[in-house]
Amino acid sequence: MFLKSLRTAFVAFAVGAATVAVTAVALTAPAEAAARAVVGNHLKAAISQANSGNYAAARASLAAAEGVGGLTAGDQAAIAQVRQYIAAKSGAGGTSGCAGLYLKGDYRGVINAGGGDAQCTQLKAQAYYLIHDYAGCTRYIRNAYGSGAGEQVLTLLMRCAYENQDNESMRTALEQLVSRTNKPEYWSQLLTTAEGTKGLKDHQTLDIYRIKLMTGSINKPEQYMLLAQIALQLGCAAEAQAVLKKGVDAKVLQPNDRLNRLMAMAGGQAATNAANAGRAAAGNGDALIKLSEDLWGQGKYDDALKFAKAGIAKGVSDQPNAMMRLGAAQLGAGQKDAAASTFGKADGSPAQQVVARLWQLYARTH
Known about the structure:
Layout: H1 2-16, H2 37-51, H3 55-66, H4 73-90, H5 98-103, H6 107-112, H7 118-130, H8 134-145, H9 151-163, H10 167-181, H11 184-195, H12 202-214, H13 221-233, H14 237-249, H15 257-275, H16 277-281, H17 285-297, H18 301-314, H19 319-332, H20 336-344, H21 350-365
């Protein structure tokens, strides 16, 4: 339990620091200062780092705890105690620099402090968040870091943008987090954010859900069902079948009348598509692009690539979509660099560009 760890750390410090002037710091933890696990984990790390003399890391962990949303009274009390502990341990409690001001809770003082080393820069960004100046937080991080922010700062930028309802900055921060870490949790948040893009068409929503499936971001029955339904609606029946089977195999989808009906519809349409494949292969460019997408959904990536190229060569009515199908086929065939380049050429509407960037990110990170 975090409370026990906190009390133990304080007592150990009090016993081992007889020669340090820490009488002004409360070194016991009241019973009511019980932090939630999501906060307590950061604070335990801060205590451990302070004990090893790594005060910069301890302050960073403290900042991470302060950045957790919806802090309770217990969270705040525990954070205050750990702040005091780090200040006493590091001797920073009486200084006027960024670290000392931050540990005293003088966040406006941190923002106005001179100096600009890496630690101070990060503490200033955190200080903006803690005084609820979310627009200032976003602006400061952009100006101070440009494209060079690390994971912790980007996570803070995402939080500030969220609080300020700045969807564009939040999406940009998530794209950078995905690009640098490829962590599933960032993919999940990015794709959820993308679902709220204005002007999305069904085909673009389908692409978002395809990437959700590929990144492990689908875990609810309604998500599997929606992906399968849109795929079936847009003529990708074999893909719809595969999605439903994956949901059943994962024990997320449970057999019922609705699922059985959808699987039967997908099976019937897939059989019809297969019977008509020869006719589609002799069609115009748009027909070849549609055939390419259906083959992609069947996992026949080399064939999908062949027909995507042939369709584009014949001429298509929707060039951005054709480039998306070509990129997906290249990606499936293992041509990741070519796919990333192709997705970069899929311009079109702003919503289309958002989805193309998602595909491009996937190609570059997998």
